[in-house]
Write a structure and sequence with these properties.
It contains 7 helices and 5 strands; from the N terminus they run βαβααβαβααβα. It has 203 residues and is of the alpha/beta class. The chain has a single domain, classed as Rossmann fold (3-Layer(aba) Sandwich). The radius of gyration is 18 Å and the shape is globular. One of its GO terms (biological process) is pyridine nucleotide biosynthetic process.
Length: 203
């Protein structure tokens, strides 16, 4: 059995979830672990000096729980599929030729070193400030963003978190989130399929 771990990260509202979901629908024996599923309870999220909830820090997330799920997949992808109720999507592997693919999606996945070290492929979604702010304003959050939250917290934290991974960007494939989603999907799907084929041919 061969495995491939793909990371899809980047800014809020950049298109990460849309791309990850579309890839999972097209790639056999693939599944998604989404970082947004691991937020702590709102009462546990710290508040900064401006009164803004600090959702965009690793301390706002149950990262150890996320890592346990990633490690569970790494130990036995088939069992993980069944635990997640995804057994209907499994394709029986053909004598060590099938490749199981884990798609990890989230805005801070590359900032958490134990997770970052596991990725075989890294994709980083980017969109300009204006587009990001517009998309963010159209989404409904629970709890909702308070006035001034994007400019006072979300965007500055994106820049800070982006700066933290600057020294490691040679391993990234940067994606323009303004491009049509079909174009992005086709490019990333082709790239991952090439890697899957390489793994199949590898002894």
């Amino acid at each position: 059995m061969k495995t491939l771990i793909v990371g899809i990260g980047g800014m809020t509202n950049g298109g990460k979830t849309t791309l990850a979901t579309s890839l999972q629908e097209q790639i056999p024996n693939s599944c998604i672990i989404a970082q947004d599923s691991y937020f702590k309870d709102d009462s546990e999220v710290p508040v900064d000096s401006n009164g803004f909830k600090q959702y965009d820090i690793l301390e706002a997330l149950h990262m150890q729980m996320m890592m346990r799920d990633v490690d569970s997949w790494r130990r036995d992808p088939e069992s993980f599929f069944r635990q997640q109720g995804l057994e209907s999507q499994l394709i029986p592997p053909s004598v060590d030729k099938e490749v199981f693919v884990l798609i990890v999606e989230g805005f801070l996945i590359f900032n958490y070193r134990p997770l970052d070290e596991l990725f075989d492929k890294k994709y980083f979604m980017e969109i300009p400030y204006d587009a990001c702010k517009r998309r963010r304003s159209l989404r409904v959050y629970t709890p909702p963003d308070p006035p001034g939250y994007f400019d006072g917290y979300v965007w500055p934290m994106y820049l800070k978190n982006r700066e933290e991974i600057e020294s490691d960007t040679s391993e990234f494939v940067f994606l323009d989130g303004l491009k049509p989603k079909e174009e992005l999907l086709a490019a990333v799907y082709k790239d991952i399929c090439q890697e899957i084929q390489r793994l199949r041919e590898k002894n």
